[in-house]
TrEMBL record, chain A:
Protein name in UniProt: ABC transporter substrate-binding protein
Keywords: Signal, Transport
Organism: Gandjariella thermophila
Top-level taxonomic group: Bacteria
Signal peptide residue numbers: 1-24
TrEMBL record, chain B:
Basic residues bias: start-end ranges: 12-26
UniProt subcellular location: Cell membrane
Listed InterPro entries: MetI-like, MetI-like_sf
UniProt xrefs under CDD domains: TM_PBP2 (cd06261)
Membrane-related topology note: Multi-pass membrane protein
Name of the protein in question: ABC transporter permease
Domain ABC transmembrane type-1: 103-308
Organism of provenance: Gandjariella thermophila
Region (Disordered): 1-26
Main location class: membrane
Record GO biological process: transmembrane transport
Family named by the database record: Belongs to the binding-protein-dependent transport system permease family.
Length: 435, 350
């Protein structure tokens, strides 16, 4: 009987203790995380590579090749969800519990600053990579405050897809270089009977990350910046106003169809493939999709690509892509570093491009005759990426992109005049970058 | 709620043990200890899955973390106690407009969708109850929307509400449903009612089926028309089941997240609910404000549920308690016979 009592009380005590310790547990987070500066990257053995769902199917082959050559340092792919937000969330959670489950992280270019500032990824030894062989804008996206925290693995840049056939019919020889030229070309093209019911131009203007990219492109193409080289917000400038006015005017005049305010990449892609757009600003993946002969595309062989049109300067694309970084909490960091070197090597990048058509990060591959024959858009893409600017590199990128989307969307949908939207945005960005 | 209702039968059983044992008082104390022992796993689980998250969220809402940078640009580690600042910021600080807007949306969606679902669900139940031929088929088909996962149905509706979607084709006029404005709210309401009216219908149908047929027969003999039968027999008798269904719908509607998120999108003011705000802050690593939003939503849900039960007398636990009392009395007479009515909550598909 006594025993039973003890057990009963014991059980109650355990319950209470569980509840208490659980409460205490969450409080202890943080503390001092290691010393600053570079930590030595040592330790060899099996590692993992955390990356978004591999839609190309080629990643496993690349890893298999590595595994064949490194029996003691096997790499296992940890496939995260397809959505970028979910990938980021899982990586953040993994970092917050200091888990060593993810060794190498495949970071979207815009997360790199956040992960570096939180010391979730370690600094990489710059001298061990031939950085001059890489696309410079891609390398810049992997740096935080001048230090290298990741290596570019895939790149991306926006291109202007246009209807070659219609432009020729309208007697236009060259793709437009500016918005004004594009608008003039559209007037000619849309007058053609073949172009009945078509709209001139679209990018991605739904309230999501794509809107930030499109707005950044417009501002950079007008010679401005969202956040300048000193880290100060600069959207109260005439350049930023010109950029936003151009987009707003595009919607008002019908140059951009009014439903484009609901467009994400896939919506604008479908619109272009259905023959509803003369010009479209999108990532290069559109090339393969629009050339599909399974009946999904009405424009097979009827289009070409050009650099993005400028506004009051040359057109500037926003850089996209992925950077590989090493988790601060990983074991076997030396193996991880070698694996990154392997994945960014010329051989790997070339075979990946051939298998997946994903934009490589090594400059010379863009001029390779064999590759250019297979992917005729490569030289244009290179020009686009070389001229590309990163989106603002800030720690609280999530807050910054949210503020941009909020104000720009309000202006595009006509709820706020551009002046008011931009001054409000400037104010918010100042608060966010002060911290 | 669940804990007390599941423990009752146990206590009833253990209480009958000491009859054959020694003194009554001592036996009761022993039984109490045995009960504590037997229940401790349940308490442990409850503490872990209910108490801990609640307390943890409350605690998080009083702290701030990761908001400052040191001179090298690294985030300052560790939590700082900020007291009620997160709450103050939400209700009257910089985030106030966004919060009150989300609060308004949540309340608006709750009121409109639940009202419509109740009426339509009731109608569905009546049809399902009366349909003689093809009754099974009618019931199954009415339940299909409820079986579709919310995120999937939201995606489905998004395609239908797309600029070149079927809805615009039917109304013959281009409305951009997913942009800001009242049309976005309308889209959410339509999709939500489509999906959850069957739930109300299902629960109401269960209530309808226990109404004895002779009541209607008697009413017919007395010359009551079908309208009168509905108001004077069907509605009062189905009320307990209907109120439980409505209560569940209210709680569901207050924490609505996936439907507006997928259908309209993140950060759209017209359809932003409180859960979406909490998610948005958490995904931007502002755990303090996120926990504060979640805590406020929790209290809001508690208050609404309490008022609903008090004012409308939704017999969620009352009825079960009544039946249990009867059961307990029976136990007093015959120990083996303690089939206390299963608590209502367990019957309802979550």
């Amino acid at each position: 009987m006594i025993r039973r009592t003890t057990i009963a009380w014991g059980a109650v005590a355990v319950t209470a203790a569980l509840a208490l310790s659980a409460c205490g547990g969450s409080g202890g987070g943080g503390g001092g995380t290691g010393a600053g500066g570079t930590t030595p990257l040592d330790g060899r053995g099996p590692i993992t590579f955390a990356t978004g769902k591999d839609t190309s199917g080629n990643l496993q082959k690349l890893v298999d090749t590595w595994n064949g050559a490194h029996p003691g340092e096997q790499v296992r792919i940890v496939e995260l969800p397809e959505s970028a937000d979910d990938q980021r969330q899982q990586m953040v959670q993994n970092a917050q519990v200091k888990s060593d489950a993810f060794s190498v992280l495949n970071l979207d270019v815009v997360w790199t600053g956040e992960f570096a500032a939180n010391r979730w990824v370690v600094e990489l030894p710059q001298q061990q990579f031939d950085l001059q062989n890489f696309l410079q804008p891609a390398v810049e996206s992997a740096k935080y405050r001048g230090k290298l925290f990741a290596m570019p693995f895939k790149s991306n840049g926006g291109l202007l897809f246009y209807r070659k056939d219609l432009l020729q019919k309208a007697g236009i020889q060259q793709a437009p270089k500016t918005f004004a030229e594009m608008s003039a070309d559209c007037q000619k093209v849309l007058a053609l009977p073949d172009a009945a019911g078509m709209s001139c131009y679209s990018g991605q203007y739904e309230k999501y990350e794509g809107l930030t990219a499109n707005f950044a492109e417009a501002v950079n193409s007008a010679g401005g910046t969202i956040i300048d080289a000193d880290g100060k917000p600069s959207v109260n400038t005439p350049q930023a106003k010109t950029a936003l006015d151009t987009l707003v005017q595009g919607f008002k005049s019908g140059m951009i169809p009014k439903e484009a305010i609901t467009f994400k990449e896939e919506d604008s892609r479908r619109a272009f493939e259905a023959g509803k757009l003369v010009f479209e600003n999108i990532w290069p993946y559109q090339w393969a999709k629009a050339n599909q002969t399974d009946g999904s595309s009405q424009v097979v062989g009827k289009f070409d690509v050009a650099p993005l049109p400028g506004i009051s300067g040359p057109g500037v694309s926003t850089i996209g892509g992925y950077n590989m970084a090493i988790s601060s909490f990983a074991k076997n960091k030396a193996t991880a570093l070698d694996f990154i070197k392997y994945m960014t090597s010329e051989q790997t990048q070339r075979s990946n491009l051939l298998a997946t058509s994903e934009a490589p990060v090594l400059t010379k591959l863009y001029d390779d005759p064999e590759l250019v024959q297979k992917y005729p858009y490569l030289p244009t893409l290179k020009a686009s990426i070389m001229g590309a600017k990163p989106r603002p590199v800030v720690v609280h990128y999530g807050d910054v992109t949210k503020a941009i989307q909020e104000s720009v969307y309000a202006a595009l949908s006509g709820q706020k005049p551009t002046d008011a939207a931009l001054s409000e945005l400037q104010q918010k960005l100042q608060q966010l970058t002060q911290q | 709620m669940t804990s007390t209702s599941t423990t009752e039968p146990l206590r009833a059983k253990t209480r009958s043990v000491p009859r054959h044992a020694r003194g009554r008082r001592r036996g009761r104390a022993e039984a109490g200890r045995l009960a504590a022992l037997l229940l401790s796993p349940t308490f442990a689980v409850l503490a872990l899955v209910i108490v801990y998250p609640l307390v943890s969220a409350l605690r998080d809402s009083l702290f701030s973390s990761g908001e400052q940078l040191d001179e090298n640009g690294f985030v300052v580690q560790g939590d700082q106690f900020v007291g009620l600042r997160n709450f103050a910021d939400i209700v009257r600080g910089a985030a106030a407009t966004r919060f009150w807007n989300a609060f308004g949306n949540t309340t608006f969606f709750m009121l409109t969708t639940v009202a419509m679902e109740t009426v339509i669900g009731m109608a569905m139940a009546l049809v399902m109850h009366h349909a003689l031929r093809g009754r099974g088929v009618v019931r199954a088909s009415v339940l299909v929307p409820w079986a579709v996962p919310t995120a999937v149905s939201a995606l489905l509706w998004r395609w239908m509400f797309a600029s070149d979607g079927v809805i615009n084709a039917i109304i013959g006029h281009q409305v951009l449903w997913t942009t800001e404005g009242w049309h976005a709210k309308l889209a959410v309401i339509v999709a939500d009612v489509w999906k959850t009216a069957p739930f109300v219908g299902l629960l109401t149908l269960a209530g309808l089926q226990i109404i004895p047929g002779d009541l209607y027969e008697a009413a017919r003999v007395d010359g009551a028309g079908s309208w009168r039968q509905f108001w004077q027999i069907t509605l009062p008798l189905v009320k307990p089941a209907l109120l439980v269904a409505v209560l569940f719908r209210i709680l569901d509607a207050l924490r609505m997240f996936d439907l507006p998120f997928v259908l309209i999108g993140n950060q759209k003011r017209s359809a932003e609910t409180l859960s979406m705000l909490a998610w948005d802050e958490a995904s931007n690593l502002h755990y303090g404000p996120a926990a504060a939003y979640a805590t406020l939503l929790f209290f809001y849900v508690v208050v609404v549920a309490f008022l609903f039960v008090k004012l409308l007398g939704a017999d969620v636990i009352g009825e079960a308690r009544g039946r249990r009392a009867v059961g307990r009395r029976a136990v007093g007479r015959r120990a083996e016979d303690a089939p206390a009515a299963p608590p209502r909550e367990e019957v309802v598909p979550a």
